[in-house]
Design a protein that fits this description.
By secondary structure, this protein is of the alpha/beta class. The protein has 6 helices and 11 strands. One of its GO terms (cellular component) is cytoplasm.
């Protein structure tokens, strides 16, 4: 049976992953919520979700994929979390589905996963350069301004990794469903 891990952190964006969560529920695929601590996390929308397990309890072998939403917090500690980086690298090495939306691709980038892969990210390259990222390392990133200029681009799928920005949340979710080989219902999600 397929299972999906979702990582929660302060200021996570629930609206970006709700279609994916509903699609997984419709397919009876269990979702388990992990966080740095086993506690309640408040979304940017103000909704509180209880984290079921800590990151150190995440056994990658038991999951078919992982989902990461964006976040509003500036310079959140989750970007520097070494355990999350390690878990993400294992998902990548095992070629399991990795879905990151909005600013969450930075979690993958910081884990070294996006080094030579194309990806979308809901920030501008110049902002990242000001935060210490090397512009030469962001060559494969389609930043917020470029995403907005290409309205038809809803997500980028490269192998088992799929990235998107907020306006592509439905198409991103449905592509995750296809990657997991589960039924998707475009009309249910307004497409």
């Amino acid at each position: 049976m397929k299972q999906i891990a979702v990582i929660l952190y302060e200021g996570y964006c629930l609206c970006e992953i709700t279609v994916a969560l509903e699609m997984l529920r419709m397919a009876d695929i269990p979702v388990t919520y992990f966080g740095v601590e086993k506690k309640a996390y408040r979304s940017e929308e103000g909704i509180v979700l209880q984290c079921e397990h800590t990151l150190d309890e995440l056994d990658v072998d038991g999951y078919d994929g992982i989902l990461l939403s964006g976040f509003m917090e500036e310079n959140p500690t989750i970007l520097k979390n070494e355990l999350l980086k390690e878990k993400l690298r294992i998902f990548d090495q095992q070629k399991k589905v990795i879905g990151a939306i909005s600013i969450a691709p930075l979690l993958l980038y910081n884990a070294g996963i996006l080094k030579d892969r194309p990806f979308m990210c809901a920030t501008n390259k110049q902002d990242l350069v000001e935060e210490g990222y090397a512009l030469s390392c962001l060559q494969n990133m389609i930043d917020w301004d470029a995403c907005c200029a290409e309205e038809d681009l809803k997500f980028i799928r490269h192998e088992h990794i799929i990235t998107s920005v907020i306006y592509g949340f439905r198409e991103w979710a449905m592509e995750i469903g296809r990657m997991l080989d589960i039924p998707v219902y475009p009309k249910s999600f307004g497409l």
